[in-house]
Design brief:
- It holds the Pfam family CoaE.
- The protein has helices at residues 14-23, 31-41, 43-52, 66-73, 77-89, and strands at residues 59-60, 63-64.
- A hairpin with a 2-residue loop joins strand 1 (59-60) and strand 2.
- It has a two-stranded antiparallel ribbon.
- The longest helix has 13 residues, at 77-89.
- The protein is built from 5 helices and 2 strands.
- It has a domain at 30-89.
- The chain starts with 13 loop residues before the first helix and ends with a helix.
């Protein structure tokens, strides 16, 4: 089996290419979708993200507080790297 990694910046066409693969019945694993599932379901990841971001404000009503986290990680590359290490470790 051949495995292909599809990477690129925002707006580079990753989603378009993934849709093309799906249309050809090529299995596609979208890491962003799976990471979002982990952030909402994994108690371990939830606990670590709460610790990283300094409290319960990382989650609202048991859902990831995306605006709060985005305001931090888009301004602090170190925090982004730490969050990615937590999510992609699981």
């Amino acid at each position: 089996m051949i495995v292909v990694g599809l990477t690129g910046g925002i707006g580079s066409g990753k989603t378009t290419v993934a849709k093309m693969f799906k249309a050809l019945d090529v299995p596609v694993y979208i890491a962003d979708v799976e990471a979002k599932k982990l952030m909402s379901k994994s108690k371990i990841i939830k606990r670590k993200l709460i610790e990283l971001f300094g409290g319960e404000q990382a989650y609202l009503d048991n859902s990831l507080n995306k605006p709060f986290i985005a305001s931090i990680i888009f301004n602090d590359k170190n925090m982004l790297n730490q969050m990615n290490a937590i999510i992609h470790q699981e």
